[in-house]
Amino acid sequence: MPPPRPRRRHRLAALLCAAAGATGCGERADSFQPNGLLRATGGLTDEQSSSIDAALAELFGSPDEPRLPPELPRMAELCDLAALQQAAGPVASHEVGVTQGLYRRHCARCHGVTGDGRGPTARYQSPYPRDFRRGVFKWKSTYRDAPPTVADLDRVLEHGVPGTAMPSFRLLSEEEREILQQYVIYLAIRGQTERALVSLVADELPAGEPLRLEGDLRDEVMSESLAPIVAAWVDAESDVVSPPDSSEVDDRLIARGRDLYHSEKAGCFKCHGAAGQGGAVAGKDYEIDYDRWTRERVVARPSDAVAHLVRQDLPIRPSRPRQLIGATPHGGDATADLYRRVHQGIAGTTMPAVGGAYPGQPGSLTDEEVQSVVVYLQSINPKESPL
Amino acid sequence: MFKRAGIVISLLLAAGIVDGAGGLSGRIVVVGAVPPAEALPPGRDACCQAAGPVDQSVVVGPEGGLANVVVSVEPRRGEPAPPADDAVPEEPATLTNRGCAFIPRVLVVRVGQPLVLANNDPTMHNVDIEFVRNRPANVVVPPDGRREFDLVKPERRPIGVRCNVHPFMQAWVVVRDDPFAAVTDESGEFELAELPSGEWRLRFWREGKPFVGLQIGSSATDERGEVVLAIPAGGLQLGDLRVAATDLR
User: What span, in angstroms and rounded, lies between the C-alpha atoms of B207 and B210?
Assistant: First the structure.
């Protein structure tokens, strides 16, 4: 545990924040926000919910004092404790060029102190800022169900997400971006752990029994639930989808892609429209569909507690198939980006995969067919952006 | 897991609880008028329009049987679990897109048994399965297409399955590492033939949620859809379990 910070730091932080005109960034935050909806839908009692908060605090610390669980040694391969400490806590600077509280300085206003995508400005953005707690990220190079690589997160930090409120952080030093990237992974793993613990309490423990994370239960949770979560992050590099060497783009390949786009085999046109105009879904009354983050809040016959939480939360917005012509793709428009997006779809969203779900699994399109769809999309949408 | 199961078997044998073939069966019956299933706007695909999909969240047979209720043995931590065989079926469990609906609506599959996604429709579908402990998938299945997936862990709840191209389509997959889960058929009947005698915690699910308040003898399923039943050596026939039509929607 790091030594308590001297009081002087709080005064400095308060001054800095006042100067920046930001609200809340200098405030201390003793605890992360619990995922109330997850716990209410799991039918947890207040006592059970508090026991999960206590277990999470014991494992991961607080927004001011992060911790790494000693039983998850591989987490140190992703997150350096000193880096997390510099990202966490209120904003302060005691040395020229060194900023403490980087996450609250640069990220928390949108992504929230907890990384739940519910910072004070989230409500006014479209799309909403990413909620890290599922460990699911859209713009990445890996197979659909794998976490992003470190390089993927770095890339989003460096370039931002074009067409959204996520800006480029190229003005930060590489070191600061790396610290933030590590802290995002820390928040994601913490959120995934919360989900695993709620599931354990809701569906495995005797009714009403609070979580006591000790003894055999602790060993089992660590080895069977949490270690695999961490391992997936550490091993993400080995789950990267490799686009084939760029094949010769000729009219025949483009024509093949065009046929596939409009075919029942790939079915792109069903959602993105015959002309790539987007927004079309089979059936006018059923245009409404949701991504993973939102679907959880669309509950049929909710209990009073769940209905109350949903009302208080961000307004529910349906997802819409993207316009493919004349719009900036959020996930980048390089050939490799488009290839991976068609091959794996977009994690957490309604956009499905036409490629295999893991290396070696046959998809509904061959890799070459995926490539042809990509060159067709490029042919109807000449590249203008320098990205 | 095996160690725990082993201990449970020894305990049960020592207590003389596992002393007969057991078995559990019953029939869930709807009392009262059930409104006809609503037609779902089928979208622009001709084959979906021709199939005329209807809302299948309540499927009641001609004699009032309630289909698609999952009945499973789900001991809480520390409670005894019935000993399970290792005989995992080799033939795949198949979820088929037919008439712009998933067939069956509720599919039970064993860990180690291949899960196959098939498509008999002339339109493409995508199959979006929100697995929690297995790899989640959302893949395109073209006409006559077939995708196969391996399942490595049992899921704690029925997992929702959807098609995002035809968002009215819905199914549920129940992933088990034992044979103690059944789904009521069109007559509302279910049977856990291999459930040995003993006292077991049962859980009832409907449309992915706990089936709360189902009256079984003098008790009813609780907020989690659970009830503890003693299965005698000769098995237990629950007979008709009645549920009011007004409680279903």
Answer: 8
